[in-house]
Queue: 3 jobs
Job 1
Amino acid sequence: MSRNDITIRETGGLNSVPTDRWVVAAGTPPTIKAGEPCKQNATADENVILLVDDDLTVATDNAMAGVAAVDSSEVAATAGYVDVYCPLPGVKWEIKATTASTVDSQSEIDALIGQLQAMDLISSVFTMNTAATASTNAFLIVGGDPDRSTVLFRIRPDACSFGRASV
């Protein structure tokens, strides 16, 4: 995987985005690198894993934990930790589009604003699939930068463990 696929563009009025520490199962380190999105491994599980291709679908996929602030610390035989930026509603994130030509003009970006999209994982790089609009997707497009072929997005609260209804 690669570092800094996702960056923080705005902190939502906070001085810094808070982090939570999650457990990462034993494995080949680092499983999660800074700037990569992760989700709970299972419902109410303390372990996090990376998102997969065409993730995240609200109420179908496991809850989003956030975006890694640092590389995870697990080793082959021992679980480790990763500090994850909390996916708070006011935080604005930036990521490259899967297909640069779909966001290389401001009018193309403007047409995406308000759409809910999914992330792609292609060749170990996370990007935003700007052709995957669905009402159950977790990532709300709120802008972009045509010169850098990036989109700005927010993470839906109901895609996260703190925003889901518990019974």
Note: Residues 92-158 form one domain.
Job 2
Amino acid sequence: MPKQASAKGRAVVTGAGEKILVATLADEVPGPDGTNRFITIVGLMRIPLRDTNGTEMYRCVLGPVLEPHEVLGVSCLPSIAALNLNIAELAECSMTSFNAEFDADSGQVEVSIELFTAGAVDSISVVFSLTILAAA
């Protein structure tokens, strides 16, 4: 029988000024080679974009610190949740790409989101769900 899931939340501010609010849920699940950990992180990334036009990449590292042999897989599903616009001007915003992969330097998962903005976009909020399957 799996152990009780645990959850925790925190706020992170990155070097580029993005504020990331995260909540983490971890549970043990049976796998073919024994018990594995299923770690789900849901978050909201608030990114200030004043005077930013064109394509920019935004990155953050999340999750517990793991060894490379512990990471069995990662996936991420982001979505644009809110835009703060100057309504006196025209604006355009889109997510052009995203990726999640294990970062051996930090021992955590790096989430990368590429955004295109033009015009009067002051800030953007991106919600995401990051899932990590790790050996126990």
Note: Residues 79 and 119 are 20 Å apart (CA to CA).
Job 3
Amino acid sequence: MLHMLLFLLLSFTSCDSVSYDDLEIPTGWSSDKSPNARKPRTCSPASEMICESEYMSCQLYAGPANNEDTACTCAGQFYGICLREAGCAAKRYGDCVDVHMDNDCADMSVCGSNCVGNGNALDLSDARILPVNNFAANYLRLSTCDLGLDEGSYQNFELVRMQRCREPGPGVGPDQAYHICPYWIPPSTFTAVAIPNNSTMLRVEYANLVPVPSLSFSSARQANATLASGEDYVANVLRSPAPLEYYGTSSLWPSSVDVAWSETNYCSDHQDCPGSHCNQRHIPHKCAPKVKKHYSGASSTGQHFKEHSFTDEKR
């Protein structure tokens, strides 16, 4: 029903508008959500089981038993293609690293996040591999842009900076929109991302995955958080801290993307902090830690459980 309504809506937009498929918004996203309330691709258990079966068949029949080349080929197909299409690549990231290390495979980028096209391809010959070290406690949403140098700034002020793309949406052409990566980097994860070789900008945004109650279609549209069948959370992309931006050319990029360590996750709302609350006195806002007073003494009762950690004032 959601896809039918979206189709009808887009059918009556102006000829300048484009569909969400044209903008390559990842499968599984509800496109009537605001940009900061969409979810990354999620794992399909049924598709994951099919991948497991195909992986076993590959190991048994694709080449000699106990052979490293066979193991690496099958692992590349399993982790690099099948699990990506199933939405399970991030979930099995640790397994991918272990298998590729055990067999001394030549290409460890198979285990990284693919931001080229729809994110399912294994051929990265036209891609750039950037190490990503997420020391933070938040998820990271990555987007690429290929608009190149801002000629106006360069001609008028001799200022070298790259143009910024626009958030995907109706009326925004695919050549002007950010390409949003379908796989997000989990907290405290050290991996790599493949981006298109012609990218000139990489945007890194902080996010939290937050649970939401089941909503009817009409009430969800009013709340700007429509859920497709089976979805039980959305991704809250934060506006503070500000997104990190990395710039490059066809020949020069930063050697790695390093996101600074934080002791707790940044937040914008209390729902970002299960069991605690978002301390909005801190700039940028952070989830408040638990302390002894929450578990003993006069302030340990349920109604005081989400009081500020280091003051007697109520939240």
Note: Residues 1-33, 214-230 have pLDDT under 50 and may be disordered.
